[in-house]
Specification:
Elements: E1 3-7, E2 21-24, H1 25-28, H2 33-44, E3 52-57, H3 63-76, E4 81-89, H4 92-101, E5 106-110, E6 122-128, H5 137-149, E7 152-156, E8 167-171, E9 174-179, H6 183-192, H7 195-202, E10 208-211, H8 217-228, E11 236-237, H9 258-265, E12 272-276, E13 283-287, E14 290-292, H10 294-304, E15 317-321, H11 327-335, E16 338-342, H12 350-354, E17 360-363, E18 367-370, H13 378-392, H14 396-407, E19 409-420, H15 422-435, E20 443-444, E21 447-454, E22 457-458, E23 465-466, E24 471-475, E25 480-485, E26 493-503, H16 513-528, H17 530-534, E27 541-542
Parallel strand pairs: 3-4, 3-5, 4-9, 10-11, 10-12, 15-16, 15-17
Antiparallel strand pairs: 1-7, 2-6, 5-6, 8-9, 12-13, 13-14, 17-18, 19-26, 19-27, 20-21, 21-24, 22-23, 24-25, 25-26
The structure holds alpha-D-glucose-1-phosphate-6-vanadate and cobalt (II) ion.
Cobalt (II) ion (CO) binds near residues 92, 113, 114, 277 and 281.
Length: about 550
């Protein structure tokens, strides 16, 4: 057994997107593809010699094979130790926690998150740093540069490691520590939340349903919600991770989690419903008969986090991604704490969290999290909601209504146009960019444009600048349209149109979202000519 050096040539298209590199699984399985990318990561972080790294993934097709390759390449690079979840499974937040708790130098997370899994679907890989968070743009840029001039990679020749048993193994001089993927994470949750109060709530007749969507959160939710908190045995459904996620999209929204939606909208619905995505970092929250938009969820959590022991001292600040509704800003303003607006993607929250500027972060795409790890965290959001419900002894619906009557309501929706030919999607964005200066003052669908720009983020901590993060158009009545192209898709381009309309506390709080957003939707069409550019007369997915 020895280290071999394999000659290779750069492979096109290895540019990390919003959250790591995502490609069709078959592309990842092509000769050298995974190896080139892993070596580029290793090179971009200054090698792995003597380092300790975490490894795990969401269990999708190729997860097991890719894990063996990554182990062999880290062994070849001289890594001291790899901490691996049993069967190479780790949810994204659990991986982030392990990196922090074990003071590792970083970690590899194998996931394409909400993208479908399987031989004909998607696979992905991302690298997180020593703070437990996604590599910042400076690092992903270096990785990409390396993918373009790579000439060789190094890999250890050896047998597959049996990852199915907790314990230790060695590969060359590298130690491999195979750990229970759930244990440390569950302990962390027990430290943050009042498990006693949640247990009391669940034994008082309060019912819940958690849909793990055949993805990685199943074992976590079963252990925490059922075993430790006493939820009924059938509360967690679709709890076994499957390589193809049962053929579904593990994306927790009303479209892809329709089964759960139907259950929660029925007369005999449970009191609380939730779902998580492929890698366990996102969440959908429902009450009986009510869907909580992720933007509202962030605002409610920010306003109520002090009910949980881990946040009893209050929050230092709140950050949200730019397209996320501004509901959380209103909470921060009233509480007199800082609020920040970052580009889409969790990597932009890392600096703010590390510097202690913010405690809570969130995205409209159902990612919410805090400074307990450096990733968004689906089950964490579910537990914080349960803790708040236990403390306030009110229904989800009552809590939302109280929130709106205190802060006003930010009606919100996201329209996705998927697999649009890239040239057409780019043309739409380019055209908007060219129009930005002329938009202010114009009237569309009865709304007057107040400001329009192409969002550039100036990181207040390291002063880096990230340009072209989405087109923002705001109107004089407080409404807003944001348009950007997705950075996680693997086919053509996905246009995301984010629509928001604000009603103050004494305004109309009981409209349907469709009714409230009608003028904003019309204005978006008028300004961006979406139909013409996408050849669609309606979005593919509305959340
Ligand atoms: C999407 C979401 C973004 C999220 C990202 C990764 O990105 O919009 O909010 O951070 O997915 O989440 P994009 O570029 O497609 O809009 V996950 O759970 O897929 O790691
Ligand atoms: Co995810």
């Amino acid at each position: 057994m020895s280290v071999i050096t394999v000659q290779t040539t750069p492979i096109e298209g290895q540019k990390p997107g919003t959250s790591g590199l995502r490609k069709k699984t078959r592309i990842f399985m092509q000769p050298h593809f995974l190896e080139n990318f892993v070596q580029s990561i290793i090179d971009a972080i200054g090698g792995v010699q003597g380092k300790t790294l975490v490894l795990g993934g969401d269990g999708r097709y190729f997860n097991d094979r890719a894990a063996q390759v990554i182990l062999r390449m880290c062994a070849a690079g001289g890594a001291a130790k790899m901490i691996v979840g049993r069967n190479a499974l780790l949810s994204t937040p659990a991986a982030s926690n392990l990196i922090r708790k074990r003071a590792a130098d970083g970690g590899f997370i194998m996931s394409a998150s909400h993208n479908p899994g399987g031989e004909n679907e998607d696979f992905g890989l991302k690298f997180n740093g020593a703070n437990g968070g996604p590599a910042p743009e400076s690092v992903t840029d270096r990785i990409f540069v390396r993918t373009q001039d790579i000439t060789e990679y190094r890999i250890f020749e050896g047998q597959d490691i049996d990852l199915s048993r907790i314990g230790t193994a060695t590969l060359g001089g590298m130690e491999i520590d195979i750990v229970d993927p759930v244990a440390d994470y569950a302990t962390l949750m027990e430290q943050l939340f009042d498990f006693g109060a949640i247990r009391d709530l669940l034994s008082s007749g309060f019912t819940l349903r958690f849909d793990a969507m055949h993805a990685v959160t199943g074992p976590y939710a079963t252990e925490i919600l059922q075993n430790r908190l006493g939820a009924a045995r059938d509360s967690v459904v679709n709890a076994t991770p499957l390589p193809d996620f049962g053929g579904g999209h593990p994306d927790p929204n009303p479209v892809w989690a329709k089964d759960l939606m139907d259950v929660m909208m029925a007369k005999d619905a449970p009191d609380f419903g939730a779902a998580s995505d492929g890698d366990g970092d996102r969440n959908m929250i429902l009450g009986r008969g009510i869907y909580v938009t992720p933007s509202d969820s962030l605002a409610v959590l920010a306003a109520n986090a002090h009910h949980a022991p881990g946040y009893a001292a209050g929050l230092s600040g709140v950050a949200r991604s730019m397209p996320t509704s501004r509901a959380a800003d209103l909470v921060a303003k009233k509480a007199g704490i800082g609020s920040y607006e970052t580009p889409t993607g969790w990597k932009f929250f890392g600096n703010l969290l590390d510097a202690g500027r913010v405690t809570l972060c969130g995205e409209e795409s159902a990612g919410t999290g805090s400074d307990h790890v450096r990733e968004k965290d689906g089950l964490w959001a579910v537990l914080l909601w349960l803790n708040i419900l236990a403390a306030r002894k009110q229904s989800v619906q009552q809590i939302l209504q109280d929130h709106w009557s205190e802060y006003g309501r930010n009606y919100y929706s996201r329209h996705d146009y998927e697999a649009v030919p890239s040239d057409k999607a780019n043309a739409l964005i380019e055209r908007l960019r060219a129009m930005l200066n002329d938009l202010p003052g114009q009237e569309c669908a009865g709304l007057t444009v107040e400001a329009a720009d192409d969002f550039a983020y100036h990181d207040p901590i390291d002063e880096s600048v990230s340009k072209h993060q989405g087109i923002r158009i705001s109107f004089t009545d407080g409404s807003r349209i944001v348009m950007r192209l997705s950075g996680t898709g693997t086919e053509g381009a996905t246009l995301r149109v984010y629509l928001e309309r604000y009603q103050p506390a004494d305004g109309r709080l009981d409209m349907s979202v469709d009714e409230a957003l009608l003028p904003v939707i019309q204005a978006a069409e008028e300004i961006a000519q979406i139909r013409q550019h996408t050849d669609r007369d309606k979005p593919d997915v509305t959340t």
